[in-house]
What does this fold into?
Amino acid sequence: MRIGVLGINHKLADLRLRELLAKSCQRRFGAECSSHGFHYFILLSTCNRTEIYFTSEDLAQTHTYLLNILREEVPEEFDHKLYSYFGYDCFFHLSRVTAGLDSAIIAETEIQGQVKAAYEHAAEYVVFPEELHFLFQKSLKIGKSVRTSLPLKPGLPDLEHAILNMGTDLFPHPLQAKVLFVGASKINTKILSFLKSKKVQSISICNRSPQSAMEIADVHQVQALPWIAIQKWHEFDWIIFGTKSPEYLITRQMIPSQLLSRKLFIDLSVPRNVEPSLRQHPQITLFNIDQINQTLKVRKKTIASTLLQAEKMVKSTSKRQIDLFHQKEKAKMHFFLQNSNQCPSRCDLAMA
It folds into this structure.
């Protein structure tokens, strides 16, 4: 099975390096650039990982091609931080990722939607070979099966509670704090819904696409603001960022000469939305995604048996799916050999 992945994640690299690679990959391998000649790619980029899934006639050649592009883009050594998997190992890896077993927050659910969105968005631009469709469709199915079969979620710490606790620690009356969400991402929407359920009284959202902000505002009964409202961030107490902006949305130059009250910035984005040096300001408390993850170290001993079950389930199901794929390929080959004197091409086999 001609599939491979080249990636970096929260386990191997710090936020700054992940940020550099995420920006480079978005420029060179984003959905609009999902094929370079006979190299086909699907980019999965989240706050905790950037991975390029690929297929071609020559995986080694494509792997080298990817590395050479990244070396041109990123001005520092990073090769030793990357991981690569091919064939079954690649399939198994994406299945673990989709099931939430490779996440900073074990069993988190957002990754399932992120994998699906990356696949569907790329497929809008490119007609992919069969292998990439199989890889993503079956991995998504395995991830969903693991979640529905095993009680992974109960008892695990989650991002929403961590963010609420940060607000509770900083503000004497957190439910009365003025909260601004920047970006209509799924993670922002989930946190917004959670804070609303906890009776946080003043919540607003702004997004580059006003329609997306209005749709979220209508569903959750909060205020939608135009994108320009980000320039008035200092009128809010608690600002939560979750966008794909390649540049900082808040910089040192945007800080008023006097801030009259404490501000809490939660930057969930990679690349980051807030200039990191702002944490030095005496009135600003800034948390990025890696710092939040550190507060969410899972008590693995309490769920060790369930995690072991999940790992075994992903492994056995992945092997079964790969075996079925190979059986299907052999059946196609047999059909063509019986009906033709010529060896079929991959294009012929895909059409069978």
The first strand starts at residue 4 and ends at 9. The chain has a mean pLDDT of 90. The first helix runs from residue 15 to 29.
